[in-house]
Amino acid sequence: MLPLGFVLNKHYIVGRMLGHGGFGITYLTYDTILSRCVAAKEFFPFGLSARRPETFTVTNMTGDMLEAFQRGKEKFFEEARSLAGLAGHPNIVTIHDFFEGNGTAYFVMTYYEGCDFSQYLKNTRDKLSFPETMRLLSPIMNALDY
After folding, report:
1. 28/50 Cα distance (integer angstroms)
2. Measured between alpha carbons, how far is residue 2 from residues 6, 8, 58, 81, 137 in Å?
C-alpha cells in the first residue's frame, strides 16, 4: 500500500487504508485544495501488479499479464465514469476526480464515516430483524433501481 503522507495528483494526501480487495486499495485521503477528507481508490489488482519500494510506482508483468492489467485499468475508469454519471442520487457515492499516476489509476469519491457491513453484523451478533434488514436494503434497492 502507499505510505502515509504520499501525495497523489499534487493535492491528495494519503492517510490510512480503508479497505482492499482483489482489484484495488481504498485510502482515506485529504484533498488540500478543497480542505476535506475524501476516499481515493487505487487500481491495484492482486496478482497483476506490484509496487516498487523506492518510488511506490505500480509495476506489472509483461505479455498477457500486462494486457490484462491494461484492460482492467480501462474497466476501472469506466466504473468511475459510470458512477460520475449517477451523481446526485442520495444512495450512490459521488465521484470527484479520476486520474492516472504511479503506473496505475485512481478515482476520488466522497468519504462517509461508518463501518462496513461485516462489522455492522458483528455489532449485532450476526442477527438482523426483518424491519432492520429492510431499513438497510431499501436504500440499496433504490440505488440499483436508479
Report:
1. 21
2. 7, 10, 10, 24, 33
